[in-house]
Specification:
single chain, 6-stranded antiparallel β-sheet, Rossmann fold, 254 residues, alpha/beta
């Protein structure tokens, strides 16, 4: 899948090894740049404001909290969201009260794959907001599943608590998913309705999507949460892949 490169992320970390790992982990998903201390980060943000700041709390010069406060005090940078890396003690004692503008607190030590997964959810949501701002028609955004998968789209709509109609086209097939406050309330794909339609389109690796935020509300026919739908879809896909592998083994034996 093509990387979403429209979102600029500044990674602030003084440990060179960790910084290198973070840059490599985030690189496929965004336009990542680095700063080794708080002062360097402040100058880079003022010169070229990023869309998201991933920041270690304990960095030389300005610490993460001081950097946050200085940027919140400037009109041009006050809206930039943060993800903080910190020890559990620092999170609870020093950072937890900072609610506004902070997307996530990630405790150290962490697994890189978990950090990338958390950061990617925020990056995908910011990418969706950029698409919305560039929409040709007010309230309608378009894109390709090769750039943003169905899972990414649904997670972003849930995180943003969006109400909309998501239309997906793959060849001659067209599916529609309806969201209310981020929850998938209804879905249609040909003769399929509800959860069955959702599970079918989630597996599409390519196609086009259109999100219409002007669509009227619908009657809910799906009881699972969006997260619940995604978890069940992943389970079904994994089950299908295992069954396919087993059939391949049997064929080879025969």
């Amino acid at each position: 899948m093509a990387a979403v490169k429209s979102v600029k992320v500044l990674v602030v970390e003084d440990n060179a090894l960790i910084l290198d790992l973070l840059m490599k982990g985030l690189g496929p998903h965004c336009e990542a740049s680095a700063a080794a201390d708080g002062g360097d980060a402040l100058m880079k943000v003022v010169d070229d404001p990023p869309d998201l700041i991933l920041c270690d709390y304990r960095i030389p010069g300005l610490d993460g909290r001081q950097l946050y406060d200085k940027l919140r005090a400037r009109q041009q940078t006050k809206q930039i969201p943060f993800i903080f890396l910190a020890s559990r003690g620092d999170i609870e004692e020093k950072l937890r009260p900072m609610v506004e503008g902070v997307e996530e607190f990630i405790p150290k030590p962490f697994f890189l794959k978990d950090l990338v997964r958390i950061a990617k959810k925020v990056i995908d949501r910011l990418h969706l907001e950029k698409l919305q701002n560039r929409a040709v028609r007010p309230g309608v955004i378009q894109g390709r599943l090769e750039e943003m998968s169905m899972i990414d789209l649904m997670q972003s709509l849930e995180m943003g608590q969006k109400s909309c109609r998501l239309t997906i086209r793959n060849g001659d097939q067209t599916g529609e998913l309806f969201f209310t406050s981020g929850q998938c309330a209804d879905a249609h794909l040909g003769a399929l309705h509800g959860e069955e339609a959702v599970y079918k389109v989630i597996a599409w690796p390519a196609g086009e999507f259109e999100i219409d935020f002007n669509a009227p509300p619908v009657t809910a026919t799906i009881s699972r949460s969006t997260t619940g739908l995604l978890m069940e879809a992943l389970r079904l896909m994994d089950e299908s892949q295992r069954d396919g592998s087993a059939e391949g083994v049997e064929t080879a034996k025969g």
